[in-house]
């Protein structure tokens, strides 16, 4: 017999989040990318003239980790970095044509994954789910 009458919400949420994240990662890999590449491309695309510090904050990673990703992506020809003329310590990041193309490919993969994830869920259930997630975040002070 379980020590709990029902599984703790946090445990169930954690297991589900891990499973969904792994499936999303697999969808991105199948499309030719990775989650860090997708998050970086998405952040650069959604922020005109983003600098590395702003991108790291948007993605939620440390600057050194982002630098590692940017170095690899620059070597692959996906993005360029140039010094900000107003502050030489800051690098501005922008996508190349190859980066734009990969962004579009991964965007389509992300949209297809989202559609797959929503199968059988009404807009009303999804709206309620969003409220539950917000309440859980609030309950832990996030």
How far apart the termini lie comes to 34 Å
* Topology order in helix (H) and strand (E) letters: HHHHEEHH
Please estimate the helix content: 55-70%
Whole-number count of domains: 1
Q: Label the structural class.
A: mainly alpha
The total of beta strands comes to 2
Strand content: 5-15%
Poorly predicted sequence stretches spanning 5 or more consecutive residues: none
CATH architect. name:
Orthogonal Bundle
Top-tier CATH class: Mainly Alpha
- CATH topology group: Arc Repressor Mutant, subunit A
The named CATH superfamily: Winged helix-like DNA-binding domain superfamily/Winged helix DNA-binding domain
Main beta-sheet annotation: 2 strands, antiparallel
What is the CA-atom radius of gyration, in angstroms? 19 Å
Shape: globular
Number of helices: 6
Strand order of the largest sheet: 1-2
Overall mean pLDDT score?
Answer: 90
What this model shows, in words?
The chain is mainly alpha-helical. It has one domain: Orthogonal Bundle (Arc Repressor Mutant, subunit A). It has six helices and two strands; from the N terminus they run H-H-H-H-E-E-H-H. Strands 1-2 form a two-stranded antiparallel ribbon. Strand 1 and strand 2 form a beta hairpin. The longest helix has 22 residues. The radius of gyration is 19 Å and the shape is globular.
């Amino acid at each position: 017999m379980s020590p709990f009458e029902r599984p703790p919400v946090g445990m169930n949420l954690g297991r589900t989040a891990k499973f969904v994240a792994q499936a999303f990662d697999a969808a991105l890999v199948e499309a030719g990318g990775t989650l860090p590449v997708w998050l970086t491309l998405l952040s650069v695309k959604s922020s005109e003239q983003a600098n590395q510090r702003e991108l790291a904050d948007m993605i939620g990673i440390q600057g050194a980790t982002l630098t590692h990703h940017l170095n690899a992506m620059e070597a692959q020809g996906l993005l360029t970095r140039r010094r900000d003329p107003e502050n030489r310590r800051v690098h501005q990041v922008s996508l190349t044509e190859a980066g734009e193309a990969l962004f579009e490919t991964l965007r389509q993969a992300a949209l297809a994954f989202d559609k797959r994830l929503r199968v059988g869920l009404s807009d009303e259930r999804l709206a309620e789910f969003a409220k539950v997630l917000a309440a859980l975040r609030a309950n832990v002070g996030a």
